[in-house]
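Throughout this chapter, every protein is written as a compact record of paired, labelled lines. An example of such a record is reproduced below:
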Amino acid sequence: MKLYSVSRVYKVFKFLLTIYLVIKKRDTFLGLKPLKPKELKHTIITLGASFIKLAQVLATRADFFSEEYLDELKQLHDKLPSMNKQEFKTVYNRAFNKTSFKSFDETPIASASIGQVHIAYLENDVKVAVKLRREGIKQRVLADIKIINFFNFIFKPLFSYYTKNSIEAVIKEFSSMIKEEVSLSNELQNLKKFSKTYEDSKIKFPIPYEEISSDDALVMSFEEGFRFDDKKSILENNIDFKEIISTLVNFYTEQMLIKGYFHADPHPGNLLITKDNEIILLDFGMVKTVPNNTRIAIIELIKAANEQDYESYINASKKLGTVAYEAPTSQLAEFTSKMFDIFSNNNLNSESMQKLAFEVLESTRDLPFKLPSDAIYILRVSAIIEGLGTTYIENFNGIKDILPILKDNLPKALGSKDSLVETVIDELKDIPFIIKNFKSTMKKASEGELKVEISDNQLEYLRKEVTKTFRSYFLSFSLMLGSLLLLLINKSYEEIAIVLFIFAITRIIYK
């Protein structure tokens, strides 16, 4: 199978060129113009799974894209063309035998980038949902990753240091995640682990049929409910949406801040709402583990946001890695204060909030924001949940509607128990260890063995500064060496050699 034609390579080039021009806010590059928002969406759908997933991740960056582009990118979910008949038969015959099902509907009920979902009935008349992996998707994804990295290598020198690193993080995280997502065996294990980890939550999960599932097919119980974006049905059935969004935010708080294991793709097609106000979560291809240092940084962010301590908020953002270590704290604190004022203003509608937010965001375009891999899916989930909230709650936003719920979960996230007595007992248990650690620290200090740890962001900053300084001195010493070589080659170059030598010395003195 030929994975890359000339026309496909050109489409990839146009896609990545558009991303470059939109981020850089440029109209042309070597005479080439970016694709319009709708053209970009159409091109992404044509290119398939890898580019759809990459675009979904990029859609978390409101500082990269204008509102028009973001609106189109956010539509890339589960309304994509299905496999043709021949591809369907190939996958089905590889995955199942003739006795696997009593009946199987060949028309999919949903079609996404990696696979499509069908309704089937087992021999005992149990209704099931069958997710089939697209034919050749694994090979296509691996080829896509290579071509994306190739074009990134070409465009990378054109970006600023921080934008370059953010795009690198997006591509790295995207490549890692999509390789896992194309394996339905991996999704099966995610579903089993997730169901066990959150068995006491108020969320319902499908039941897998492991014995007839494989890397090409995942068979699960068929879950009935309304799609999250089926506003008409939800309103007709008098479903309390404020309770639904509160349950969802509480659930994601538990995932990201307490258990550290979360579902990274809660778009409307993956969330069903029952008539009994129950949430059903589907599709476990994108499941992530939150590192402990990231979890702590998010907790500090929430605490600072609740207390409106914007300098602490920026410092927590630096720990999270979304703001560079050397970024001006006071300037960013002022920006954060403005954003909080906009989104907590009850007199503004959603459209006005967005417009003002983009205007403020535009003023920070040159500040060193970053997108580390740990934060990519957390930001994406936050953006999706806020988008879901705005569907049903007027002027819904993260500060006014989500922050209070997050704040109420902080004690649990920090390890507090449900009762005061349990908390006191736990603290008393820790006292011997605290005393032991204090004695150990004092001993190391007296023996001159006390070590100071610095964060990854500080290390990155130091590495960047050392590299910049080394390059500067290397150039100066090269010029000095070059001037000496000129004298050795031919003394008639004496004047040129002296000029080069003086220039090199000047660079070192006035560094």
